[in-house]
């Protein structure tokens, strides 16, 4: 059914295994003194600054992106730390791969539409011209399946979302309580075993003789030893699965889909797979077995028992994944667009080439490993209580999610990274980490997330750290006051923990605490994880990463980009561990990071212009038809965002001219160095090879903070080692002394 792990993994992608688990040990440091004769005062803003932005025409910024310098040499005080966990690889592709694990039920009538839709779509391909920004070469992303029915598809998506949240989720809580996990697993196994005929037929039609053999072996073993398929003994005996369906078969025969479809209940599809859905249903002989005759006066006889059972199996599978679906659908500003784009590669009839062509880059590869940091207990997100509080400056209600300890306990307010939602994977993972160690946890969305922008931001768009940081501070203060009223004597010491951009906001609040007005909450501890020091340098690096594929020859670029996406789609169907070397070259890993942040920028621009249209965008802003507008927005870099949106906006808001350097200086932690240096309750955890930190940033951190305040890990990239138990121990150590006792509820 429709999104994130909402059902079983889609039986579509070929199983492509990653070559060999090449282990790269990760290093965990001891805290140590800064080396270094680093400057004792902040470096002057606007001076010689690798990757900084210089003033242009008195107000603009120009990105001066250059190769990141080598890390500062530090004492080899490190020890090897083990790995654990094996969550998903990609937050973008995984929702789609699990989105179509729905039933192959009575869909023959819908399949009749496929041919007409295919012909219609050929006349309606998305191709609206977008005037490119001048004098710049762009990375052109591979096209998705055309979506000429986007408004209708979005309406169906909203219906499916409402069904999942309003019906499936509440009833599944009861179902999971009554039917325990082993029984639910057996029901799912039994249902898959019954669909063997379709997999056999399609493996044969595709010429996958080994796949047909393996599926036959699995059916024989599971039907006999596995007691009619209730137990999956074939997997224990390492007999591989070979999922195949008619949509795949049509694709191998040359049918390229021409129209994306969002089906009621079934979720994402296209004209080709819609016909395949009907063929899959018709191919199962059990469909035609019914112990009762059709009776027009009795609706229960309209469908056979196998169809009813299929619906029951679908519900059984959804009961274990619906909570994750709800989290995903709420955490993404436009989950539909992610599903629509990723579905193209999830159903591509092309095998990814896993050969790594070119050198690899450790820092960016380690950054990609941030996907391994996830919550361990799948029930944990659902235990959080979502509340809302009115923000004085906007008179609107902002949502937050709280996990409150049963007794009095210190509270950790978690501020997420750039554009992230309060229910994003790392935010919830941090909440689980602190909650399981005796803290209450509260998550709010990033100041760059549409939820915060549209409910708590006093500016039309985020860009100016003093405004954004104060908005975050005001929001957390109001949340704290509400919690105190609702739960008296339950809140102990307060801590603010931010990661990435959230760390920058946290340190701004710490650095300006002495000048804050009395009503604003003061924290007993500030913990900053992987903070950037200079916003200008960080986002210029992200622009550079997105443009990394320009190094490929033009004729090969499109094919290489598509193969990169196919790798991600295929890898998301496997269970990876941090010990597995990701098969991406330096260009690929940098591009995947840059692309992730470019999609975040797309959402920032869309949300800000929906609220306050500055007239920069050529396409009209519509909630139901966004494809052409999104294509236009993706041409804008972070540098463009500041030059074309932020600077003109703040020129009308009374910011001293020239506005460009003023925004740059405000986004530099060194500006607040005096306040930070005098603050004993700040704790900072960074990685030496963080892609957003330059040598001078590390030197400033060493010169500003004491050995008790600053911990630097040698490896990890940006947020790439948060899954490591040693790093997690350091995070909890940064909260030491606040009076937490380990939770007995976990």
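Q: What amino acid sequence fits the structure above?
A:
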């Amino acid at each position: 059914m429709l999104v994130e792990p909402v059902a079983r993994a889609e039986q579509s992608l070929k199983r492509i295994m990653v070559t060999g688990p090449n282990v790269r040990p990760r290093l965990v440091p001891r805290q140590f003194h800064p080396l270094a004769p680093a400057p004792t005062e902040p470096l002057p803003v606007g001076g010689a600054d690798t990757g900084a932005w210089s003033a242009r025409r008195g107000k603009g910024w120009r990105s001066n992106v250059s190769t990141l310098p080598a890390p500062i040499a530090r004492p080899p005080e490190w020890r090897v730390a083990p790995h654990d966990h094996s969550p998903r690889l990609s937050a973008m592709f995984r929702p789609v791969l699990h989105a179509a694990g729905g039933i192959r039920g009575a869909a023959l009538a819908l399949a009749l539409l496929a041919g007409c839709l295919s012909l219609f779509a050929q006349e309606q391909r998305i191709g609206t011209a977008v005037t490119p920004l001048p004098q710049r070469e762009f990375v052109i992303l591979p096209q998705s399946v055309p979506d000429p029915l986007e408004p209708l598809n979005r309406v169906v998506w909203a219906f499916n979302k409402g069904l999942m949240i309003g019906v499936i989720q509440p009833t599944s809580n009861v179902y999971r309580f009554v039917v325990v996990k082993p029984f639910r697993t057996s029901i799912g196994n039994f249902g898959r075993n019954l669909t063997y005929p379709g997999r056999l037929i399609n493996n044969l039609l595709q010429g996958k003789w080994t796949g047909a053999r393996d599926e036959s072996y699995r059916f024989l073993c599971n039907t006999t030893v596995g007691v009619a398929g209730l137990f999956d003994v074939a997997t224990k005996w390492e007999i591989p699965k070979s999922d195949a369906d008619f949509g795949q078969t049509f694709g191998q025969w040359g049918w390229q889909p021409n129209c994306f479809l969002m089906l009621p209940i079934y979720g994402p599809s296209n004209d080709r797979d819609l016909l395949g859905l009907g063929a899959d249903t018709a191919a199962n002989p059990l469909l035609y077995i019914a112990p009762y005759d059709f009776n027009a006066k009795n609706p229960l006889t309209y469908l056979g028992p196998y169809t009813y059972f299929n619906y029951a199996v679908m519900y059984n599978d959804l009961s274990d994944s619906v909570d994750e679906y709800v989290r995903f659908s709420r955490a993404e500003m436009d989950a539909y667009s992610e599903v629509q784009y990723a579905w193209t590669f999830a159903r591509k009839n092309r095998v990814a080439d896993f050969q790594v062509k070119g050198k690899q880059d450790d820092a960016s590869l380690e950054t990609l490993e941030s996907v391994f940091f996830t919550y361990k207990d799948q029930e944990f997100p659902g235990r959080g209580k979502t509340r809302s509080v009115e923000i004085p400056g906007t008179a609107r209600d902002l949502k937050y999610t709280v996990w409150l300890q049963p007794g009095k306990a210190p509270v950790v307010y978690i501020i997420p990274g750039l554009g992230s939602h309060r229910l994003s994977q790392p935010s919830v993972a941090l909440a689980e980490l602190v909650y399981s160690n005796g803290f209450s946890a509260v998550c709010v969305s990033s100041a760059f997330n549409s939820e915060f922008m549209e409910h708590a931001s006093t500016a039309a768009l985020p860009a100016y750290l003093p405004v954004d940081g104060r908005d975050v501070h005001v929001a957390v203060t109001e949340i704290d006051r509400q919690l105190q009223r609702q739960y008296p004597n339950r809140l102990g010491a307060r801590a603010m923990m931010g990661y990435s951009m959230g760390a920058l906001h946290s340190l701004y609040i710490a650095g300006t605490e002495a000048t804050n007005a009395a009503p604003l909450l003061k924290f007993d501890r500030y913990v900053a994880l992987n903070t950037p020091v200079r916003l200008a340098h960080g986002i210029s690096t992200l622009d550079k990463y997105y443009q990394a594929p320009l190094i490929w020859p033009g004729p090969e670029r499109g094919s290489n980009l598509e193969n990169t996406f196919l790798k991600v789609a295929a890898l998301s169907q496997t269970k990876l561990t941090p010990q597995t070397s990701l098969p991406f070259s330096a260009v690929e890993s940098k591009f995947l990071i840059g692309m992730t942040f470019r999609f975040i920028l797309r959402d920032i621009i869309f949300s800000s212009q929906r609220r306050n249209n500055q007239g920069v965008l050529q396409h009209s802003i519509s909630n139901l038809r966004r494809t052409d507008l999104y294509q236009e927005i993706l041409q804008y870099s972070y540098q463009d965002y500041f030059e074309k949106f932020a600077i003109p906006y703040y020129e009308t808001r009374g910011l001293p001219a020239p506005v460009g350097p003023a925004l740059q200086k405000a986004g530099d932690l060194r500006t607040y160095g005096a306040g930070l240096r005098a603050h004993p309750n700040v704790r900072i955890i960074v990685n030496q090879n963080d892609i957003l930190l330059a040598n001078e940033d590390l030197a400033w951190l060493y010169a500003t903070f004491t050995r008790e305040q600053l911990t630097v890990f040698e490896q990890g990239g940006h947020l790439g080692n948060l899954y490591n138990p040693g790093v997690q121990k350091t995070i909890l150590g940064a909260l030491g002394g606040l009076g937490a006792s380990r939770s007995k509820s976990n």
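Q: And what stands out in the fold?
A: Confidence is low (pLDDT under 50) at residues 1-130.
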